[in-house]
Amino acid sequence: MVIVGGGSAGAVMASRLSEEPFRRVLLIEAGQTYLPDAYPDAVRLQHIIGGDAAHDWGYISEPTRYGTTIPVPRGKVLGGCSAVNAGVAMRAPAGDFERWTAAGLEHWTAQDVLPFFQRSERTVHGDDAFHGRSGPWPIHYLQDDEVSDMQRAFVASAMQAGFANVSDFNSDKPFGVGPYPMNNRMGQRLNTGMTYLSLDVRQRPNLTIRSETLVDRVAFEAGTAVAVVLADGQRIEGNNIVLCAGAYGTPAILLRSGIGPAAEVQALGINVVADLPVGTRLQEHPFFYTTWAARPDRLGLPVPPVGAILWTQSSKAAANVGDFHVSAVHYGDPETSPTGAIFMLALALTRPRSLGTVKLRSREPDAAPLIELNLLSEAQDRQLMVEGIELIRRIARTGPLAGLIAEEMVPGALSTGYDALEAALPSALDIYHHPTSTAPMGGADDVHAVADYQGRVRGIDHLRVADASLFPDVPCVATNPTVIMLAERISQWMRDADR
């Protein structure tokens, strides 16, 4: 068996599928591999978010509707994006799975997936009905004394503004405000290369990890995936191929393999193996940084960088879906603040309507894909971002947070009314780094689906997808824990099939 990509999903798949000694597993990772206790600071320390150039694919989006490009960091290291993200460990809520089920996807209800969230998790927090105690992935819920003065003030002000205090975002009542659950411990980010691929796991005789190896494409015989072809032309055969290369890497491999929109594939001189809508429904959470000059005597120490969140609903949210995140973060350059002290309240719209695309820039395996995020192309997305900024301002005027603020820097107090705030959106527009849905699974009648409910690519035998590209649409939360759950679930189906 060949697994392509050693990130959040690939590490899970390799760990679980190699538990049974009769199965030989090869995990191929394009980035570097480190021993679990020897990751360098850039992909280990909690306060360094986004990694560095040595552990990143270096992708940049096509220009947005505002003419700006956006860096699209993706982890290029064993552990993938779990080695460079903020470490937030919030699961997709029941409403996301209800939406997928209503669209015709079988076996992905909230009840179906809960055991696989629990299987991954090791925590002492919360109710046994929702949590796992002995999984490989450690989760720590930040306590009030572990977040900054600003973050505590934010929680108190949001509560005074009418929002519930949440002690467990991974329960059946996740919406409200509180400190984050994280998979960080003692200042370290505990990525899946450390946790799922522990030293004991790596020493299994039936598991081989091959690093710094770029996969070009999948090879087929009579509609069956039989091998992967590396960028140097080497061919590696496997009785099952699983793509875990992420929301940009997986569609690029599929397209180079001849799986994708037929006209697009043919235009690059690639033989069409399967005419499927690969790369046509990219989704990403738009992000906007409201920036505040703080009173230096009241700000306190700016750590942790990410500490508290409000998870709530916009005026357009469906039932059981929280489509607004407001994160209280210590980002920004203090030298840009008139007071020398700064923080941000960052807004994410987690159920955007806008769709982007991922295409091949060229046939070469080392060419970055063409990533069209298409942020805020739908008018409703822009309207809700403005609504979210106004929500942040209401919280900032309330309770202890108001006493900490000296001045609104972005969008600025003079930006009032809908038109001015919409015009301000490009000034601090970013992404939440949660791309999904570029090879989505779906029901038998779903014209947008690339794979079935088990990640099996339509019309191709022995080829699966198991990463964020498989989500039918973007969940309304940080994607990493749900990707890990998905890999747990698909690996179990594969194990069951082998029995």
From TrEMBL:
Keywords tagged on the record: FAD, Flavoprotein
One GO term describing the cellular component: membrane
Domain Glucose-methanol-choline oxidoreductase N-terminal: 246-260
Cofactor(s), by name: FAD
Gene Ontology molecular function terms on file: choline dehydrogenase activity; flavin adenine dinucleotide binding
Gene Ontology BP annotations: glycine betaine biosynthetic process from choline
Top-level taxon: Bacteria
InterPro entries reported for this sequence: FAD/NAD-bd_sf, GMC_OxRdtase, GMC_OxRdtase_N, GMC_OxRtase_C
Gene3D superfamilies found in the cross-reference section: 3.30.410.40, FAD/NAD(P)-binding domain (3.50.50.60)
Pfam family, one: GMC_oxred_C
Signal peptide: none
Binding site for substrate: Y432
Record-listed FAD binding positions: V77, N85, A86, G87, V88, V215
Family, per entry: Belongs to the GMC oxidoreductase family.
Protein name in UniProt: Dehydrogenase
Species name: Stenotrophomonas terrae
